[in-house]
Amino acid sequence: MEDYAGNVASAMAATLGSRLVGVYLHGSAVLGGFDARRSDVDVLVVCEGPMTAVEKSAAAERLSRERLPCPAHGLELSIVTFSAAQHPTARPAFELHVTTAPEDTKYVDGHDREGDPDLLLHFAVCRSAGRLLGPGRPAPEVFATVAEDLILAQLARELRWSTGHAPGEYAVLNACRAWRFAVDGALVSKIDGGRWALDRVSGPDGELIRTALDRQRRLSAAELDPRAVQRFVDHALSRLTETSA
C-alpha cells in the first residue's frame, strides 16, 4: 500500500505541478483498522486554485484502475482547493472525486455539484492525523480547524445513513466512534471506537459491539439483529444531540 500511495502522489504532482499544495493519506490507513480486503485507500489532494478541464482529465486517466491498480479495495480520492481546506463548511466544494472500487468506479466533477458533506470529516482527520505523501505543506497548515458543531452534525448524518445503506457492523462501529467524539472530541477508526465503547457497556450492547468487531475483521460471527443495530445507533444519536445542545 505504501508504494501505491506514493504513486498516487507522483501522479498528482505530474498533473498539478507547482500548483500542488500537498497529497494527504487519511482514513483507516492512518487511524488504524486498515484491511486491504475491504478498506479503501483514502487520499485528499489540495491544489492552489480551481483545476482546468485538462487537469481533471489527466488526473482521472493517471489514477484509473487500469493505469494504477490499487492493492486494496479501491482508491477514494478527492481534490480540493486550498481555500476550501482553509474554510470548511457543511458541504465543502471539491474539484474532482475519484473512486476506483470495482463496483463503484466513478469520476465526479465537483463543479457540477453543491459540495460533498463527507469531506468535512476528511478535513478534520487530515488536520489531526493526515500523512503527507511526498513534498508539500504539513497538514495542520493546510486544513483549518473544523467547528465541533459541524462535525457533530456530519457524524449524525452518517449514522442516519448507515442503518439503511451499510452493513450492521459498519453502523454499530460508526456509532461507537461518534460516541467517542461526543465524549472527548477524538476522531478515531471504527475499530478503535468499538474497542473504546466496549469498556463502557455491558450485556447485549457489549455483545453487539464484540460481534460487530469480529465481522469487521472478517472473523466468523453471527448476523447482527437489525433491530438491535437500530437501537444502538439511535442511542448514539441521542448522545450526539445532547452534546450539541
Automatic annotation (TrEMBL):
Annotated organism of origin: Saccharopolyspora antimicrobica
Pfam families attached to this UniProt entry: AadA_C
Molecular functions per Gene Ontology: nucleotidyltransferase activity
Gene3D superfamilies: Beta Polymerase, domain 2
Domain Adenylyltransferase AadA C-terminal: 169-237
Transmembrane regions: none
Alphabetic keyword roster: Nucleotidyltransferase, Transferase
Name used for this protein in its record: Streptomycin 3'-adenylyltransferase
